[in-house]
Each structure stands twice: as structure tokens, then as C-alpha cells.
């Protein structure tokens, strides 16, 4: 019998106009809990689909590498949308830093993460799908399930769930500890069951941080178990070499893998072209906007402190920034509704 992730992949490869009703092979799927893959059943090319369905199709109907810059707030997300990436990634580290001014140490909890993800996912709800960090699931299986449910309702297309202890830390710090494989399986099982209950195409990404503590073979074993419990994609955090990253793709093929590219972290820098050649299917760049934002802000504030001016380039006006954030759309909404607020422009 096909594993549940294989059933999912098969479902997603069915031509869109052929109605299909698929049942999971997951142990939870008894006659009263049959999983109807409604999202795949009748969508036509011009029907808007959820971010989850879009992401699942990109994963299982194409071979493309889905490149997702890490975003952490409305402006960074709007900037990524402006440039037309095929997906976005909401970084937990960036969310914690920007919303709470704190390091990536399990300080942001479900509420903050969900709220940020919902805002970002709905800036362009029919645009590129949003993958979000869901850390450890913020508790036991009940909280992992609750996180998946809330993320689905928020419009998040997929999220990664890891095996670190609840008092987790950024995957590119030393001293990480992971829970037992059994405990991690329960998290994955709960998350998968939640998405089945929600009848959603939400993409569940299993992440292991076991490399530091237990080594490569343990990571592969954990990923295989997570896959068999219904995870759709795997993520091994903190590869120590390019060869190891390439090997993981081979060892887990044809299961799709996500690569977390953190420059100056624990892993070597791997480019998009290299990751594509290795066979990764999703690539996230956690610090793609947070690190440059810090540098730009600091440089500008130094100028203010030393020269008494901010020194913004002439072509960056308040209107420019508001346009990045959808000014024209808001004005059109008002005018199309017969509103008069913008008759004289802005
Ligand atoms: C992917 C990650 O979970 C994130 O929050 O973006 C972090 C990134 C980081 O802090 O280096 C992680 O890798 O743990």
C-alpha cells in the first residue's frame, strides 16, 4: 500500500479536470474519517486556488525548485512580492527579532507566529504560497495540531515542524537538543491528522535538528519515520558539507527535500543552481531580508547620528514606499466603490 505522502503525490498529479476522491492510507483513516481531497477534485486553471493547493501542485506536478526568500514583516514580504518569487518563507527568527526584539530561542509562540503569518499570507492571497516556520509546534501533539489548524485557517500553504526540545534555539547555533524519535513522531502524526481533518492541501514539512547531537544516519532515520507518518517534505537542518546535502537528497529520494540556506551559519553556502542540481525541491533563505535590513538601518542611523541627515535617495519618497504596500490597490478599491477620497490624488 502506498504511504500517505505517496498517496498525496499521486493525488496532486491527477489532471485537474478529472474529479478524484482519494482516501488516505494513514492509520487514522477509518470509514468515518475518509480524507476527501476536495481541493484537487474540480479546480480549473482559471479558478483561484489556496496557497496550500498551489504549493502542493508546484511540488508534485512540476520539477521546479521553489525559491523562497525569508520575510519577516509586511514590508519585507511586499518587497519579495514586488520581485515575483515563486514562494515566500516566514522566518521564525525574523518574526521573533522584528516583532519582539528577541533572539530565536522559543520566545515567539503560536499567537505571534500565526498573526504574522496570517498578515503576510493575505497580502496577496492568490499570489506565491507562504511557507512558515512552526518551530516545535509550541507544545505536545495537541499544540502541534492546533498550530496546523490555525495556520491553515490563516492561509499558510505549508510549515516545518522540528524535533528540538521545546526550549529550542536557532538551528544554526551550537548546543541543540532534540526529543526522542517517538516524541517527534507524535508531533508529526498530530500535525498530519490535523491537516487531514481540515481537508487541506497544507504541506507538512518535517525538520530534524538531530545532526549535531546524533549524526547523519539518525537524521535519515527520523526523516523516513516522519515521511511514513504523513509528512510531505523533509528538512535536515545544518548540513556540514555540500556532499552531505547532496547525499541526503539521494538517500531520501523520491521524497522532496527543502534546503534552508543560512549564510554564515553552520552550513556552507549553497547557491540556487547548486541546490537545483542536487535535486532539492524547496529552498528557503531565512536571513535574506533580515540581515540586509539590519545593515541598511544601522548604516542610515549612523549617518543620522554623525551627519544629522537620514540621506534617503531622492527617488524613495513616502509615496514610493506606500506604493510597495499597495497604495494603488487601496485607491482603486475606493474609487471603484464610488468613494471620493482620492479624486485629487495623493
Ligand atoms: C529557519 C529558521 O527556523 C528561521 O527561523 O528562519 C532558523 C533560521 C536561523 O535562525 O538561522 C533556523 O535555521 O533555525
From TrEMBL:
Reactions that this protein is recorded to catalyse: (2S,3R)-3-hydroxybutane-1,2,3-tricarboxylate = pyruvate + succinate
Sample GO molecular function, one term: methylisocitrate lyase activity
InterPro entries named among the record's database cross-references: ICL/PEPM (IPR039556), Isocitrate_lyase_ph_CS (IPR018523), Pyrv/PenolPyrv_kinase-like_dom (IPR015813), Pyrv_kinase-like_dom_sf (IPR040442)
PANTHER family registered for this protein in UniProt: PHOSPHOENOLPYRUVATE CARBOXYLASE, PHOSPHOENOLPYRUVATE CARBOXYLASE FAMILY PROTEIN
Similarity section: Belongs to the isocitrate lyase/PEP mutase superfamily.
Record's protein name: Carboxyphosphonoenolpyruvate phosphonomutase
Annotated organism of origin: Karstenula rhodostoma CBS 690.94
Lineage, opening ranks: Eukaryota, Fungi, Dikarya, Ascomycota, Pezizomycotina
Amino acid at each position: 500500500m502506498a504511504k500517505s505522502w505517496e498517496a498525496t503525490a499521486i493525488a496532486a498529479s491527477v489532471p485537474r479536470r478529472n474529479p478524484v476522491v482519494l482516501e488516505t492510507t494513514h492509520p487514522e483513516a477509518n470509514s468515518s474519517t475518509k480524507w476527501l481531497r476536495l481541493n484537487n477534485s474540480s479546480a480549473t486553471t482559471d479558478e483561484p486556488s489556496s496557497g496550500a493547493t498551489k504549493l502542493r501542485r508546484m511540488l508534485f506536478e512540476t520539477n521546479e525548485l521553489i525559491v523562497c526568500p525569508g520575510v519577516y514583516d509586511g514590508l519585507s514580504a511586499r518587497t519579495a512580492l514586488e520581485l515575483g518569487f515563486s514562494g515566500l518563507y516566514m522566518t521564525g527568527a525574523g518574526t521573533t527579532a522584528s516583532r519582539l526584539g528577541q533572539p530565536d530561542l522559543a520566545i515567539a509562540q503560536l499567537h505571534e507566529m500565526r498573526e504574522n503569518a496570517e498578515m503576510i499570507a493575505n497580502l496577496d492571497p492568490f499570489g506565491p504560497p507562504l511557507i512558515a516556520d512552526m518551530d516545535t509546534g509550541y507544545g505536545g501533539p495537541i499544540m502541534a495540531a492546533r498550530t496546523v489548524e490555525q495556520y491553515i485557517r490563516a492561509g499558510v500553504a505549508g510549515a516545518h515542524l522540528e524535533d528540538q526540545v521545546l526550549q529550542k534555539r536557532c538551528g544554526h547555533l551550537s548546543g541543540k537538543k532534540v526529543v526522542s524519535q517517538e516524541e517527534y513522531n507524535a508531533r508529526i502524526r498530530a500535525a498530519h491528522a490535523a491537516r487531514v481533518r481540515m481537508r487541506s492541501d497544507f504541506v507538512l514539512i518535517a525538520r530534524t535538528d538531530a545532526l549535531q547531537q546524533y549524526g547523519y544516519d539518525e537524521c535519515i532515520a527520523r526523516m523516513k519515520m516522519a515521511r511514513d507518518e504523513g509528512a510531505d517534505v523533509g528538512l535536515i537542518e545544518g548540513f556540514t558539507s555540500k556532499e552531505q546535502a547532496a547525499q541526503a537528497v539521494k538517500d531520501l529520494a523520491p521524497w522532496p527535500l527543502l534546503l534552508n540556506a543560512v549564510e554564515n551559519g553552520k552550513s556552507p553556502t549553497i547557491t540556487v543552481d547548486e541546490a537545483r542540481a542536487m535535486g532539492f525541491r524547496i529552498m528557503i533563505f531565512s536571513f535574506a531580508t533580515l540581515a540586509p535590513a539590519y545593515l541598511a538601518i544601522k548604516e542610515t542611523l549612523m549617518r543620522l547620528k554623525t551627519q544629522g541627515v537620514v540621506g534617503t535617495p531622492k527617488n524613495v519618497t513616502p509615496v514610493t514606499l506606500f506604493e510597495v504596500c499597495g497604495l494603488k490597490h487601496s485607491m482603486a478599491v475606493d474609487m471603484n466603490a464610488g468613494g471620493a477620497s482620492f479624486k485629487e490624488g495623493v
